[in-house]
Thioredoxin peroxidase (Rugamonas rivuli), 212 residues
Amino acid sequence: MTIRLGDNAPDFEQDSSIGKLHFHEWAGNSWVVLFSHPADFTPVCTTELGLTAKLKPEFDKRNVKAIALSVDPAESHQAWISDIEETQGTVVGFPIIADEDRKVSALYDMIHPNASTTATVRTLFVIDPNKKVRLSITYPMSTGRNFDEVLRVIDALQLTDGYTVATPGNWKDGDDVIIPLTVQDPDVLKQKYPKGFTAAKPYLRVTPQPNK
């Protein structure tokens, strides 16, 4: 199954490090970062889950829940969590899905046979409170993810959901934003962008970021 932007995130029930988990019910009205890793007790994954755990205050500010997945059993996850907490100096406060039967991996197309026929690649989804998929990123097994980029995109998504703007390349929270081409009426421009804007070209109009 291929998951595309704007699709409904498939619901599922599966075992996890915190017991049986019903995904949509667990997600509630939060944003979700759902990410897979190839296997427990592996070095790159250990650093990734440690980074995710340390970002909990940042996720909380953005109403985001994190949830990880691998094809190892829940007992393995529990033992590995102890290693993560010891080596990364943090507390793993999010669940890890135990996808032994690869049901969730198939739903979310997380196994890429040309990379591995058994292990999930480093796939990451950002899912909004309406259970819509808003971002998908897939990394090779040898490359750890950049979780600062995940936060940056969530900031951009939450901003553009609330205001009629787009974000330029390398945008960070607080930077200027772009007025979409769909907004042309002068009165609407004054109403929506009271701080004014500059236009390098008729199609390239930049305005200060609205207050969130």
